[in-house]
Amino acid sequence: MGQRIHFVVDPQGWCCMGLIIFVWLYNTIFIPKVILFPHYEEGNISVVAVLCYYFCSLFCIASLFRASVADPGKLPENPKIPITEREYWELCNKCNMMRPKRSHHCSRCGHCVRRMDHHCPWINNCVGEDNHWLFLQLCFYTQILSSYTLILDFCHCYYFLPLKKENWDVFVFRHELALLRISAFMGLIILGGISRLFYTQLMGIFT
Questions:
Q1: Which partner for 131 in 11, 70, 82, 155 could form a disulfide, CB atoms 3.0-4.6 Å apart?
Q2: Interval 139-186: pLDDT, tens
Q3: Which is nearest to 17 in space by CA: 118, 119, 124?
Q4: Does residue 192 belong to any structural domain of this protein?
Q5: Alpha-carbon span 144 to 58, nearest angstrom
Q6: Please, is 175 exposed, middle or buried when counting C-beta atoms within 10 Å of its C-beta (0-12, 13-18, 19+)?
């Protein structure tokens, strides 16, 4: 079953999503440039490591866009209430619409969402019944990509053999240490935040 497109007009959400896309672009461009390609050319790593990084990056950005545009479970203006379920519906005092219990009204989106968990500014969308699994996918792939990036940063500094051929006229190699520190800092921040959120979401599902 296909997901309905849902687009939220929210400048704050656009800024948050733009920040996430910037972090993704930064690591997708500079990590291969500084670590993967040079070490692959000198035989320190295999092509599998390079392909795995790009696959993780692709899955991460694809899950971000899917979670941000998927309908979280927005209730229609005139919902059809089955006779057997009328006792489980209630009136929303904000939009004056009937909604099933466990639904919530999102003040930022301006409508009720079935089994709404929260409004996430980082995907500029609510997390509800229909896109909760997409949000969990995003958290999972983000953890993998952040962990992979941190491992590469660590191995480049402390494990891999020093590079024999370096083009010091290129910007990335002149500022290699600064670029790696920025990458590691962003990776730690995102991994810590996403891991805590992912754990909270799983505990909520299990309990």
A1: 70
A2: 999 999 999 999 888 887 777 666 666 555 565 566 677 778 888 888
A3: 124
A4: yes
A5: 12
A6: middle
What domain range is 51 assigned to?
A: 11-71+128-206
Mutual orientation of helices 11-31 and 132-158 as an angle, nearest 10°? 40
Which residues lie below 8 Å from residue 98, measured CB to CB, with a gap of 6+?
79, 81, 89, 90, 91, 92
Q: What is the count of structural domains for the chain?
A: 1
C-beta of residue 54 within 8 angstroms of C-beta of residue 145: no
pLDDT for 62 equals 93
Residue 130 DSSP SS3? coil
- Positions marked catalytic: 120
Quote the DSSP letter at residue 33.
I
pLDDT digits (tens, 9 = 90+) for 43-100: 778 889 889 999 999 999 999 999 888 888 888 777 777 766 777 788 788 777 778 8
171 C-beta neighbours (distance < 10 Å), count: 10
Reported pTM: 0.82
Q: Does residue 123 belong to any structural domain of this protein?
A: no
Strand locations in the chain (E): 89-91, 98-100, 104-106, 111-113, 118-120, 125-127
